[in-house]
Amino acid sequence: MSNLLIRAASGAVFVSIMIFCIWHSLLATAILFSVLVAIGLDEFYKMSNALEGVRTNRLLGITLGTYSFVSAFLFILGYISYHWVLFSLIMLVIGLLFELFRKSQQPIVNSALLVFGLFYVVAPFYTMLLLRGTQTDQWMFLVGMFVLIWTNDSFAYLTGRFLGNNKLFERISPKKTWEGTIGGIVFAVIAGYLVATWIQDDVIFWMVAALLVALGSIFGDLFESMFKRNAGIKDSGNIMPGHGGVLDRFDAALFSAPIFYLWLLFYS
């Protein structure tokens, strides 16, 4: 019970900070996301280095990813030119060339994981920043997306715990069931209807978005579980008591955010 209370308390604090920053301003959101990007990259490269023979340049990956995220944000606001954003490509090339001198066992794998970490962590958080936008009421789209993700995760867990019998992907995630997966999707779609009603927006958009977000959440969760299982670790980090690391908390959003953003562009 104490572990459940710790998990609930840390989750409540985290959600409160998230919603406050997203509601407050794009700048507050960017600052929070910059911290999460840096921590998420650190977790990713630590997991990568737990693989046999793999030694990615963790410091370079964190520096490159955080710089890319911050410079792209400043470019959106018009504070810097696109040349500063393109500088991250030069840093990436230098990082890849660095493998020539490291004499590591898996230079190609190291390079591939260095690049993949940027796409896996930085790109989705940047998509979330675009969802937040600069308009006063645009924050509701990002908060609404997180509501759908949290609803899917919570009810998938509850439905699976009380009704789950048939395993979804036992090889990757032994506790996930088909019943829990379906339950999470159903309640996410209901949440989509409620979000649309709350913000007085298009019901069809939000119910379809809920379905897409739920599917993205499922695959995002399974992908991270596969990565952790391959690396032989339980959690990506321990920054959040009862929840693990940033990647554990955002595994669903890393897949769902780009899908939600593309759906928003398509529907608009």
Write the layout of secondary structure elements.
Elements: H1 2-24, H2 26-49, H3 58-76, H4 82-98, H5 107-132, H6 139-163, E1 167-169, E2 173-177, H7 178-199, H8 203-231, H9 246-267
Antiparallel strand pairs: 1-2
Helix pairs in contact: 1-2, 2-3, 2-5, 3-4, 3-5, 5-6, 5-9, 6-7, 6-8, 6-9, 7-8, 8-9
Give a brief outline of the structure:
It is built from 9 helices and 2 strands. By secondary structure, it is mainly α. Helix 5 packs across helix 6.
State the secondary-structure class. mainly alpha
Strand fraction band? under 5%
* Mean pLDDT across residues: 88
**What percent of the residues sit in helical stretches (DSSP H or I)?**
over 70%
Unreliable runs: none
Mind describing the biggest β-sheet?
2 strands, antiparallel
Estimate nothing, just give the exact number of structural domains: 1
Q: Termini distance?
A: 46 Å
The total count of strands amounts to 2
Count of helical regions: 9
**Main sheet: which strands, in order across?**
1-2
Coarse shape = globular
* Alpha carbon gyration radius: 19 Å
Secondary-structure element string = HHHHHHEEHHH
